[in-house]
Amino acid sequence: MSxxxxxxxxxxxxxxxxxxxxxxxxxxxAAYPITPQTDLMQRFASFANNGKVKTEMILVExxxxxxxxCIGAAAAGxxxxxxxxxxxxxxxxxxxxxxxxxxxxxxxxxVNRSLSAPLNIHGDHSDAMGARDSGWIQLWSENAQEAxxxxxxxxxxxxxxxxRLPVMVCLDGFIISHSIERIEYLDDDTVKNFVRExxxxxxxxxxxxxxxxxxxxxxxxxxxxxxxxxxxMAKVPKIxxxxxxxxxxxxxxxxxxxxxYRLEDAEIAIVVLNSAAGTTKDVIDEFRDRGIKAGLLKxxxxxxxxxxxxxxxxKHLKAVCVLDRADxxxxxxxxxxxxxxxxxxYKEKPLLINKIYGLGGRDYMPSQAELVLNELVDILNTGxxxxxxxxxxxRE
Length: 396
Known about the structure:
Layout: E1 7-12, H1 13-24, E2 28-31, H2 38-49, E3 56-59, H3 63-76, E4 80-81, H4 86-91, H5 93-101, E5 107-112, H6 126-130, E6 137-140, H7 144-159, E7 167-172, E8 180-185, H8 188-195, H9 222-234, H10 236-251, E9 258-261, E10 268-271, H11 276-289, E11 294-299, E12 301-303, H12 307-314, E13 319-324, H13 334-343, E14 351-356, H14 366-382, E15 389-391
Parallel strand pairs: 2-3, 2-4, 5-7, 6-7, 10-11, 10-13, 13-14, 14-15
Antiparallel strand pairs: 1-8, 6-12, 9-11
């Protein structure tokens, strides 16, 4: 697929994702409004209302109902999308497992938002981290461009005949969803050719071949069913990379399982998801100018987690800080435990520390990245860790 001219626009993350959904032309969309996702689905619904997309919009009374309707439509044989945030994702909890267990390739942008209590409508990663073990593929996005690109690639990943699993595309609430950025849109034909025509797999509406979805399975087969689901997830990283290679040919933009920034010769590094990565890169450049070999790793594919590849990328470092925008209360942050597991097999590995930052939309500032990197320099020089887990940016 050859690279074509691209349309440049100044839009918000929500607008960019809505455009990606329009260009992919799903058959059915069932969604419910919730801040900060509401604007995304409102824009997509206007596309449907104005005839710019041939999508059947379904009015529902909750996010639980939205996912239920999506499950029914996908099982019937349609290309299906929805979107949500924070408490909306939490209300879908039961149905998330149904969607993945039935192997339904539903696409769902998740505009990351905190969870109550107390009530907070701003962005952190508590929602998607809480759903990380629901059997959904998770792609994470640093900015609006990545969110747009990830949504387009998500269709090819989810609908691959060796996968057939639902995909969440995560983008930070307000920080990405409501901020205006420069976006390079692919033209409609390029996206149409990239996502391809939807191929049904065992649709319920095929009356010549009756099927049963989600039957009762007792202990004699449930264990084997879940093992099969695990085996399918193991195939996903290879498919993600193959789709990314095709997308690079169409767009000129390169993606992988993660992004490494000045990491190859680094001695210390920060691991961080989504929008905070951009701020961190600027501070890493400042440290490099001072002769300090700092780097960054930004995961893109969080589920399934690419343990081997990330372990190989980090094993040569001396000290690493994992920044989590969510907490697992009574334990380390959720991403910290994954990074620690990826490095566990190596005899020689970096010292690890964990920082919790930016909960409930608290700004992540360059000074916080500088604080973390200075602590890593101190660990590099002394070989000692003072605190393995700590909240940063906290008011005293």
